[in-house]
Amino acid sequence: MIKYFLIIFTAIAVLIMGVFGFRGRKFRDTPVRLFPDMEVMDKVQGQMDSEFFADGVASRPQVPGTVVHSADSSIYSIEFGEGREGYYYEGKFGDYFGAGLPKELNLNKDNIEAFLGRGQERYGIYCAVCHGEAGDGAGVTSKYGIAGIANFHAPNYSASQYPDGRLYDVITNGKGNMSGYGYNIPVADRWAIVAYVRALQNAKNIPLSEATITE
Fold first, then answer.
1. At what angle do helices 112-126 and 187-205 cross, to 10 degrees?
2. Percent of the chain with pLDDT over 90
3. Which of 5, 71, 101, 184 has the fewest CB atoms within 10 Å distance of its CB?
């Protein structure tokens, strides 16, 4: 029984190799691809005609409402700062991290509350899952053994030891297990998160006797 099985198995193997050839073998004819994956795709090159679209043009115009990701000027409402220099974009003055919020934010008593509200919202979306709602490093991911999550209330993360520009830089480029959010969060929103983190730290340090209690 085993003898016949080996004969049949060998015959099938020889047949398969005869039809499809060995791996790496070169053919003159177009190879047969049973599973083409992404080697062969239904696509057209730029500036080519296409029968798929009614106007016969393959290159399609931008979707209405599309916002440019980055450019040479600062006229766009969503700004990621790619390839630009200066404290507002880098969090640095030369080789040194700066302190304070950039003047480009144009903050004043009339818009600072909304700015902090924006920071709270963005923090809740991007940061709280790891760093916790209170900034203490006790977010959801901490319950799954993720190590090295920063507790912003630790002394080494205070504004005097960890400048605002450095905090901004970490949000932008990442650090350790944390990936950078430079391509996800606009520049102004990163600074809003920095401001909100400082607000969390300040709130933690306010003595109960000085806190305002409302009913």
1. 100
2. 49
3. 5
196: number of Cβ within 10 Å? 22
Question: Which amino acid makes up residue 107?
Answer: L
pTM: 0.65
End-to-end CA distance of the chain: 88
φ/ψ of residue 178, rounded to 5: -90, 125
pLDDT tens-digit series, residues 100-150: 999 999 999 999 999 999 999 999 999 999 999 999 999 999 888 888 899
Q: In angstroms, rounded to a whole number, what is the distance separating the alpha carbons of residues 52 and 131?
A: 48
Handedness of CA 123, 124, 128, 134 (dihedral sign): positive
Distances (CA, A) of 66 to 77, 80, 203: 11, 15, 39
E-only strand ranges, the chain: 92-93, 96-97, 174-175, 178-179
- For 87-208, which CATH superfamily applies? Cytochrome c-like domain (1.10.760.10)
